[in-house]
Amino acid sequence: GDLERLADDVRRADTVVAFTGAGISAPSGVPTFRGDDGVWERFDERQFAYGRFQRDPEGFWEDRVELQRTMFDGDFEPNTAHEALAAMGRDGDLEAILTQNTDGLHGEAAAVGGETNDAEPNTARDTDPTVLELHGNSQRVRCTDCGNRRDGDPIFERAADGDLPPTCDCGGVFKPDVVLFGEQLPGAVIQRARSLARESDVFLAIGSSLVVEPAASLPRLAASTGATVGILNLESTPVDGIADIVSREDVTDSLPRLRDLVLE
Ligand code: OAD
User: Fold this and answer.
1) Is 82 a catalytic residue?
2) Is the pTM of this model over 0.90?
3) From CA 163, how far away is CA 155, in angstroms rounded?
4) What tens digit of pLDDT does each residue of 109-119 get?
5) Which of 6, 108, 201, 241 gets the highest tally of CB atoms within 10 A of its CB?
6) Rg of the chain on CA atoms, in Å
């Protein structure tokens, strides 16, 4: 089948790059953005635009507390799809994970460790795939004056208790450490993502609707330099036409199976 073909290509490839979106975290209970239960059905994207943050940091933070509750309610943990990617990294079959997600779950899955391929003992952290968080991390905040990063939880609690907008010891206003609408992705990050896409022999787009930039263009860039492009997503995407392999399965089914097939 298709996954077998993809596994063959992964096995033969020098450089395999995974690119992930909200769909990989949906089985962990983190809602996606688009679709019926999507976050953008309940909130207006414009509430979280960079311009709003600058004009009205108090209102922005008030809404952001709500968004944070909706997205990251209670405990959420890496699922078998995150773990399969982390394991492929340790197996030596995955170079990098580029993610649009801000939930930090790829990093957690890598840190958890877990099982290793017997043939290739875990040589610890140097074999972990690089995780590049293109849209930042929602579990952190950053001071807009001094640039210090802090764990987000206590700051979100302060904001929820009416400390609006929450400020740093230096007096600067904290901002969630994420890329907001209307804000540019850091140039170095986008360069790195593009060069990984170009270098890749296999590019896997996983759990993303592939409608916003750079999501829409990275798979095309990979394809244009000869990579095998696999799209693993429940729904069709505008980029399916250039993909070599499309899987419409739940990623908690397809990714653990892909890893097993690569090891066979
Ligand atoms: P979307 O919500 O746009 O798309 C998630 C995709 O995952 C959908 O196409 C679903 O079909 C698919 N999906 C859901 N559950 C799945 C599962 N278990 N297995 C396989 N596929 C599944 O999320 P993104 O593409 O990540 O930006 O959205 C991209 C960006 O748009 C986000 O990073 C965010 C948003 O606005 C910012 O916040 C800057």
Assistant:
1) no
2) yes
3) 9
4) 987 544 333 33
5) 6
6) 19
